[in-house]
C-alpha cells in the first residue's frame, strides 16, 4: 500500500486538500490498522467514520447478535440484520461503504485467554465495550503491548473520552479500582439517548485519526467530559500517578480480574433446543425485573430469579443453570455474578427472548 489509486485520490480529495494531511497523510491512513472492541453504540459510528476516512484495516470484535433494541443507537444495523452477529453485519456494511479497505470480523468475546493474540499487529485500539472488567483488562494488555487505546463511555446524557498512550498515564491512574459489579448501571438499566454514543464515537474516531496521522505528536493526557443535555464540554488534565496500581513501580493486579473477564458461557437461540435436550436437568431462570408475557414453549417451567436476594438462589451450586432475560444483557451480567460465587455451570441465552422471538419468525417464514 505505497501509493494511492486514482479512485482513492478522488474519494479522499476533501481530506487530501488539507495542508496538514495531503497525500502523505492519506497514505498513513491507508497503511493503518485499528481494532475496535465492541460493535455497539460507540463502535458503530467510530467504525463508519474510520472506514469512510480510508483507514486501511479495521478489526471488529464483539460476541453479540443484533437485537431490535440496538437499532435506536447502533447505526450500522438495519432490521434485516436482527439475530445475526454484529461483527459480520458490520463487516458487510463497512465494505459496502468503502470497498477499498479491509474489515476483519471477530464474533467472539475478548478475555484473558485471547486478548494478547487479538492485539497483535494493530496500531491502535478503540474501546467500545460496555463491560467495566474488560476495560481494565484492555488497559493492562495495551500497556503491555505498547499500543495506545481510546477510551469512551456513555450514560444517559453524558459521555467521556480519553486517549491512553503507553508513554503517559493509564486508565488506572484515573480509575484505580474496579467498581463492584452492578454498582454502575449500564444503558439497559439507566437508559441512553440514542444520539449520544454517536457523538462520543465520533470523538473517538477523531482522536484515532489524529494519532494515526501524526504519531509523532502524543495525545494530550486529558479526560474529555461531554454533557449532551446542556451542551457542555469540559477537559480534565490527567497526570501519571507515581503509585498507580496499573503502571506504577509496583503494579497490583485487580482483585478477581481474570475471573470477572472470563467470557460468560452463552448459547445462541439456534442452539437452544439441542442444548435443552443435552441438559435435561438444567434449571431455567428468568432474570427479567418482573415476569411479563407468557414464555415460549422451550422455556416453560422457568422460575424467576431475584438477584437481589442471594438466599433464594438455587442450590446446590453445582447444578446447571440456563439464564435468560428480555435482551440477554441482564442474564449475561447475572451469569458473571453467579459464577463469581461458585455457580460454575451457568449459561446465558444470547439475545434473550427478543432474539428467540426473531429466530422463531425467521424459521416460520
TrEMBL record:
Spell out the protein name for this chain. Answer: Molybdenum cofactor biosynthesis protein MoeB
Q: Which Pfam families match?
A: ThiF
Q: One GO term of the cellular component aspect?
A: cytosol
Task: Give the organism's phylogenetic lineage.
Answer: Bacteria, Candidatus Blackallbacteria
PROSITE patterns documented for this protein: RHODANESE_3 (PS50206)
Q: Which InterPro entries has this protein been placed in?
A: Rhodanese-like_dom (IPR001763), Rhodanese-like_dom_sf (IPR036873), ThiF/MoeB/HesA (IPR045886), ThiF_NAD_FAD-bd (IPR000594), Ubiquitin-activating_enz (IPR035985)
**Key words, A-Z:** ATP-binding, Membrane, Nucleotide-binding, Transferase, Transmembrane, Transmembrane helix
What are the transmembrane regions? 34-61
- ATP-binding as a keyword of this entry, yes or no, is yes
- Which residue windows are coiled coil? none
Q: What GO molecular function annotations does the UniProt record carry, in alphabetical order? A: ATP binding; nucleotidyltransferase activity; sulfotransferase activity; thiosulfate-cyanide sulfurtransferase activity; ubiquitin-like modifier activating enzyme activity
Describe the location of the Rhodanese domain by residue ranges. 278-365
Amino acid at each position: 500500500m505505497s501509493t494511492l489509486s486514482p479512485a482513492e485520490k478522488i474519494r479522499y480529495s476533501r481530506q487530501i486538500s488539507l495542508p496538514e494531511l495531503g497525500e502523505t497523510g492519506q497514505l498513513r491512513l491507508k497503511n493503518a490498522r485499528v481494532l475496535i472492541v465492541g460493535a455497539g453504540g460507540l463502535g458503530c459510528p467510530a467504525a463508519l467514520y474510520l472506514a469512510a476516512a480510508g483507514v486501511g484495516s479495521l478489526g471488529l470484535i464483539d460476541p453479540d447478535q443484533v437485537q431490535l433494541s440496538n437499532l435506536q443507537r447502533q447505526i450500522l444495523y438495519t432490521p434485516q440484520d436482527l439475530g445475526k452477529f454484529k461483527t459480520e453485519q458490520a463487516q458487510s456494511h463497512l465494505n459496502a461503504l468503502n470497498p477499498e479497505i479491509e474489515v476483519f470480523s471477530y464474533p467472539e468475546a475478548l478475555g484473558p485467554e485471547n486478548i494478547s493474540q487479538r492485539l497483535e499487529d494493530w496500531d491502535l485500539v478503540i474501546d467500545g465495550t460496555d463491560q467495566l472488567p474488560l476495560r481494565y483488562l484492555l488497559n493492562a494488555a495495551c500497556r503491555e503491548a505498547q499500543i495506545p487505546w481510546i477510551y469512551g463511555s456513555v450514560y444517559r446524557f453524558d459521555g467521556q473520552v480519553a486517549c491512553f498512550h503507553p508513554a503517559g498515564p493509564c486508565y488506572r491512574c484515573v480509575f484505580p479500582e474496579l467498581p463492584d459489579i452492578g454498582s454502575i448501571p449500564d444503558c439497559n438499566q439507566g437508559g441512553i439517548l440514542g444520539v449520544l454514543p454517536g457523538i462520543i464515537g465520533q470523538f473517538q474516531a477523531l482522536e484515532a485519526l489524529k494519532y494515526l496521522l501524526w504519531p509523532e505528536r502524543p495525545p494530550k493526557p486529558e479526560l474529555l467530559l461531554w454533557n449532551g443535555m446542556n451542551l457542555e464540554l469540559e477537559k480534565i488534565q490527567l497526570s501519571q500517578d507515581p503509585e498507580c496500581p496499573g503502571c506504577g513501580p509496583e503494579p497490583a493486579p485487580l482483585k478477581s480480574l481474570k475471573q470477572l473477564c472470563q467470557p460468560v458461557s452463552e448459547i445462541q437461540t439456534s442452539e437452544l433446543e439441542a442444548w435443552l435436550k443435552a441438559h435435561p436437568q438444567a434449571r431455567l431462570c428468568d432474570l427479567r425485573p418482573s415476569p411479563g408475557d407468557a414464555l415460549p414453549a422451550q422455556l416453560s417451567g422457568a422460575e424467576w430469579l431475584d438477584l437481589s436476594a442471594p438466599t433464594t438462589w438455587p442450590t446446590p451450586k453445582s447444578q446447571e443453570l440456563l439464564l435468560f432475560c428480555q435482551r440477554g444483557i441482564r442474564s449475561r451480567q447475572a451469569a458473571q455474578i453467579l459464577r463469581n460465587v461458585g455457580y460454575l455451570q451457568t449459561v446465558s441465552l444470547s439475545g434473550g427472548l427478543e432474539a428467540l422471538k426473531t429466530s422463531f419468525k425467521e424459521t416460520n417464514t
